[in-house]
Amino acid sequence: MINLANANVQMLHLNCISAFEYQPKIFHNTIKERRSCAFLYIVSGEYKYTFSSGKFTAKSGHVIYLPKGASYKYEIKSSQAKCMQIEFDCLYNNETAVFSNSPLIITENANAEIENSFSQTIYLQLTDANGETLRITANMLLLLSYLLDKLKGKNFSSSYKSILPAIEYMKKNFTGKIYVKELERECNLSASQIRRIFQKELKLSPIAYKNTLLINSACNMLKGDNTVSEISESLGFDNIYAFSQFFKKHMGVSPKHYLLSI
Asked: Nearest-CA neighbor of 8 among 209, 246, 157?
């Protein structure tokens, strides 16, 4: 089992085991080496979690990450508690992946986007609609992105910190051409050092990282009212054909087919 606090979401393989909404009937419990990862959205009630490295209390609107293999105790303070839960396995290079060693609050104020991810995943688990797996994965990736935002800045190695200027620069300029000299200037490192650290920390080359930023942006824009032509131009592609080929290479489907599956 590996801890992936600094992992890139696009490198992960997710398998949704189950998703459900329920009112808890067990109000005190001890969990030893949890069998799968889970996202828990507290609709109502108060939950107290205790584990070897600390404790916290979560209330309505909180979203919790429960890592596989974690041991902890929980106590539910309200008999009217209600929650939504997504159980899943997460693999990275065919190894079980976790993002922390103990339960973690992702956010204290779940927005409509998060609520919809939970409710839609629960609904899709009960149907056989076309594109079900893709939509469930998209919802889980969204929740993972909130988890990674929560972890941002924590437990970063010194080598990761050394390429942070390049990462921030690429986030701001990924729609245009990015030259190695620009990254060298940002980090005060050589091109070979930058490539080596990117591969070590992100398991991606700088070019692959830039492509990941493009794909993430394209997927988000396709969920809005943007046309494929507008997205292509906005992301700096010469034409729609070049964008469509790029998108299909990385996502396995064309932008139009991806749009139909959302």
From this structure: 209
Q: Which of 2-16, 75-89, 97-111 has the highest mean pLDDT?
A: 75-89
**pTM (predicted TM-score):** 0.58
Question: For residue 131, what pLDDT band results from cuts at 50, 70 and 90?
Answer: low
* pLDDT tens digits, one per residue of 16-47: 899 999 999 899 999 999 999 999 999 999 99
